[in-house]
């Protein structure tokens, strides 16, 4: 019997592993989530290969032209008095190889900037997905607390009915309120599952497909989670926008990428223009005449050497290619100006959004939360003492639920607006105090 149970246990584990089933999600902090994504994200690993490809392109661009081995034989009467030859031909590019290598080096720098931007963007995506998951779990937790509160209210109503202090209508109202809350709780559970799947989709780990990650449960339920979510407290004061703009515009990946594209276009123009320079072809080898083919019947040997000027732009001067290369420079410069202008506007929008979110969150912390909590506790106490009716309590409870949910959303907006601000300044760990 034990062997049979062991067999089915092993079979269940194998099936779970093959289907990607994870019995218990692994709870991780935001910092751990970012580190796991950077180290294991499949798309990021693929993007990093662009750098290796660009490095190989430098070696390819720096290559010499291939050598040709050739031979020439005269046959029949035409061979009498004429040598047979075996030799090699080597083409030498003039002023093209260096330009081609510099273009490849510029493309390598562009690839590195693109990968750096991809990594930064991935980190921000992880932070947003983590916050969304934490928000969903907090809303679910708050609704479950509300459900528990209504269940306690139902018990109070039943006791009051039994004591003759109220009618059955209170019990019916409480049961209806509980059933409505149950539907909200079920919907919140679906939101948590969706956020959990999206969070793992963003991490997208390589060789960890059977592992499911989850956010820490306590987030959004405490007021000191700002460090855990790598966000300054809402009491912190941002420096003036002009100072932030001056510092951040020089560090933005998209601006650096746009600037590097100008350099790539300029080096491409140099390479295209140098196609008009002719190349030199050297050739040489061994020549000989056999006894039967020589005029005096003796074996003769020697060598030959020569040179050609090739790729002479006599009938084609590469004017269309050069014109297009110049247009590519103009295009890259216009793109740079556009990126810079949009960056400033996006930064201004993100700055104002964060300031507004910070102000709203402080209003909740300083005014609404404390008052609403006192209100619901007082309403519950009054109903239990018979000083108020159930309808009043349910109205207060619904108001309290709305405030709690809106506070959670305000907190989420505060965290998300900070991530949005980081995206625009292109700094992962923005130090407010030392800018």
Please tell me about this protein's structure.
This protein is of the alpha+beta class. Helices cover 65% and strands 10% of the residues. The protein folds into 2 domains: 25-61 and 93-278 and 313-425, Up-down Bundle (Outer membrane efflux proteins (OEP)); 66-92 and 279-312. The strands form 2 sheets. It has a 4-stranded antiparallel β-sheet with strand order 2-3-5-6, with no helix packed on it. α4 (97-162) packs antiparallel against α9 (390-425). Residues 1-21 have low confidence and may be disordered.
Features of this protein?
single chain; 435 residues; alpha+beta; Outer membrane efflux proteins (OEP); 2 domains; two-stranded parallel ribbon; 9 helices; 10% strand; elongated; disordered N terminus
CATH topology of the largest domain, by name, is Outer membrane efflux proteins (OEP)
Q: Given the structure, what is the number of helices?
A: 9
Instruction: Give the name of the CATH superfamily of the largest domain.
Output: Outer membrane efflux proteins (OEP)
At CATH's second level, what is the architecture of the largest domain?
A: Up-down Bundle
Topology as a string of helices (H) and strands (E): HEHHEEHHEHHEEHH
Shape: elongated
Alpha carbon gap, first and last residue: 70 Å
Radius of gyration, CA atoms, in whole angstroms: 38 Å
Helix content: 55-70%
Which regions contain 5 or more consecutive residues with pLDDT less than 50?
A: 1-21
**Class derived from helix and strand content:** alpha+beta
Question: Got a strand count?
Answer: 6
Strand order of the largest sheet: 2-3-5-6
Strand content: 5-15%
Largest sheet: 4 strands, antiparallel
So what's the CATH class of the largest domain?
Mainly Alpha
Q: Which whole number gives the mean pLDDT?
A: 84
Number of domains: 2
